[in-house]
Amino acid sequence: MSEQIEAVTETSPPPIKKKAKPVKRAKVKRKILTEPTPISGGEYAGISAHQCCAGCNAERCVITTVGVCGHPYKANLHNAGPKTKARVLQVKKLLKHQMIDADKL
């Protein structure tokens, strides 16, 4: 009978694992969004993500060279010609670089 008691005491349940502590995550620093400085010089002088070029007015846009706005973030030019589309892509690249430069500040 003592053998049975010893056998029972030897087969005790496995130890209970402790719950893992929750992982603390680093807080992300949020960037303060500022208006990038407009491009100075060249034919697209003064353009920013929210403003047209300094040379644009109601009668003529610097990008489309007609009375229709061609700003990449304001206008949607589906039926534009190849030269106008090329100029819009060029301005988009300028604005992208402008925003990247503003993030570095």
If you had to describe this structure to a student in words, what would you say it looks like?
The chain is mainly alpha-helical and 105 residues long. 30% of the residues lie in helices and 0% in strands. The chain contains 2 helices and no strands. It has helices spanning 2-10, 82-104. The radius of gyration is 33 Å and the shape is elongated. The model has no long low-confidence stretch (mean pLDDT 78).
- Gyration radius (Cα, Å) is 33 Å
Q: What amount of the residues lies in strands? A: under 5%
Number of helices: 2
Structural class: mainly alpha
Cα shape: elongated
Q: How many strand elements? A: 0
Low-confidence stretches: none
Sketch the topology as an H/E string, one letter per element: HH
* Distance linking N and C termini: 82 Å
Largest sheet: none
Please state the average pLDDT score: 78
The percentage helix is 25-40%
Q: What is the topology?
A:
Elements: H1 2-10, H2 82-104
Task: For this entry, give a set of tags.
105 residues; mainly alpha; 30% helix; 0% strand
Short characterization:
This protein is mainly α and 105 residues long.
